[in-house]
Every structure is written in structure tokens, then in C-alpha cells.
Design goal:
Length: about 200
């Protein structure tokens, strides 16, 4: 294995460990057993996505990374110090400024589904910079592809009904990735489908 591969492998292992610690805390906050989310993940899936955004003198004419929410549970983002990430809150887009030496952690659709809507996935997009290249490395964490996902049973009993219907995780990813309209359309469609059944 090359030195670069060793570094990448170690990086992904360390990020996975951080994710598991956060999942433990979230499980406890939700009133679930400490290892609940980790157990739901099974072997889990970890996806690495690197993005390179060269400088653009006319950013208003470019196609950015379209607005979307991540399909997994948590995504860890690190970047090269050049701002470009925006998040949507109450229909308004806000710039997220880079903090040196830090990770930005996004909540994804899977965690919104599992928490029965208590945690909300973050809709976000990327913009380009007029003068500087932006590089981002995102590592997403989700359940194994064959898992059926849905709200945690104790949270359904607590809230009275499931906000999201069950679906196989790989099918959810396929629906989300094949949609021509991005944003949180796949998650909203799953919620609407469940509401029709109630």
C-alpha cells in the first residue's frame, strides 16, 4: 500500500471514530441507549468526496454544487481555508465561514429519519471564489446499503406516529441521486408518502 493510501486509510478510520462518539451522544440525547445509532448502522458505509473549485471571475455564470442534503447520518467536511459553503435556514442562504483546524459536521437525511424529525438534515450548497481555488473533502457516514431505514421505534412510540416510512437505504440513495430537483425533495417525498398512510 502506498504512503498516500496509508494516510487516507488512517484519516478515514479516525473520522469514523469521531462519528461514533457523536452518534453515542446523539443516541443519549434522544433518550435511546448509548450504542443505538451505531448498532443501526451495522457495518456502515463511509463515502469520501473531494471537490475542486477553481477561481472564477464570473461566479454568477457558473453551475455550483447544487443545493442538497446528504443522504447519510453525518458528514465531516474539511476545506483549504477558502469560504464557499452555504447552508439554508428558514428559506435564507447563509455563508459558513471556515474555522482553521476544524471540521464542519452536517446532519444528513438518515439521522432526520431515524430521529423521527427531531434532528433536521442540513440543506447546503457550494459557491466558487473569484480569486482563489477552493478544495473541500467530505466524509459521509451512513448505514449499510441493505439496511431498512425508518424512525427509531422508541421515538415513534413517544411521538405517536412515524413521520417517515421504512425504505431500504440503497433505494433511498437511488431516489435522492436520480432526482432532477435537488434540495430535500427525496426526504420530503418519503415524509409525504408516510403522511398519506396515516
Amino acid at each position: 500500500m502506498s504512503p498516500v493510501s496509508n494516510v487516507a486509510r488512517e484519516y478515514l478510520e479516525r473520522v469514523w471514530e469521531m462519528a461514533m462518539k457523536i452518534f453515542e451522544a446523539i443516541s443519549e440525547v434522544l433518550g435511546l441507549e448509548k450504542g443505538y445509532i451505531e448498532e443501526c448502522l451495522g457495518e456502515g458505509v463511509q463515502i469520501l468526496a473531494s471537490n475542486y473549485y477553481p477561481p472564477c471571475p464570473e461566479p454568477h455564470k457558473t453551475l455550483w454544487l447544487a443545493a442538497h442534503s446528504d443522504h447519510g447520518a453525518l458528514t465531516f467536511l474539511t476545506q483549504n481555508g477558502v469560504d464557499g459553503l452555504q447552508i439554508k435556514h428558514h428559506q435564507t442562504w447563509y455563508a459558513v465561514h471556515h474555522v482553521p483546524g476544524s471540521f464542519l459536521v452536517n446532519i444528513g437525511d438518515y439521522l432526520e429519519i431515524l430521529s423521527n424529525g427531531r434532528y433536521k438534515s442540513v440543506e447546503h450548497r457550494a459557491t466558487v471564489n473569484v480569486q482563489r481555488t477552493r478544495i473541500s473533502i467530505a466524509v459521509g457516514h451512513g448505514p449499510q446499503l441493505s439496511s431498512f431505514i425508518g424512525p427509531a421505534s422508541p421515538l415513534v412510540a413517544d411521538k405517536g406516529s412515524a413521520q417517515y416510512g421504512p425504505i431500504k437505504y440503497k433505494d433511498y440513495i437511488q431516489i435522492q441521486q436520480s432526482s432532477t430537483v435537488r434540495g430535500k425533495t427525496a426526504l420530503l417525498a418519503l415524509k409525504a408518502q408516510q403522511n398519506e398512510l396515516i
